[in-house]
Amino acid sequence: VKTIRESEGYALKRINTAKGDAAKFIAIWETYKSSKDVTRKRLYLEAMNEILPKVENKVIVDSSLKSILPLLNLNKGGAQ
Question: Is 68 in contact with 59 (CB distance < 8 Å)?
Fold first, then answer.
């Protein structure tokens, strides 16, 4: 009986999570349809805001120069 209740609780949690994810996607889609460029830029910036703090080393590539820019090591307080 306990296992059945736990399974039902897990199923309910998964269903609610899926409904929430779907609602979030639909809201983003509606916003995207009305202003594609702004929404695309916002989603990109939100993703970078979440990802970059977890990355230890960051390398910036200047596409116009076709080379890697000098690395500024902020941890040591100087440029390399």
Answer: yes
Task: Give pLDDT, residue 20.
Answer: 98
SS3 category, 57: coil
Q: What residue ranges in the chain does DSSP mark as E strands? A: 61-62, 67-68, 72-73, 78-79
| Length of the chain, in residues | 80
Cβ-contact 69, 60 below 8 angstroms: yes
- pLDDT at position 58 is 79
What's the mean per-residue pLDDT of the chain? Answer: 86
| C-alpha 1: how far from chain center | 40
Q: Where are the domains of the chain?
A: 2-79
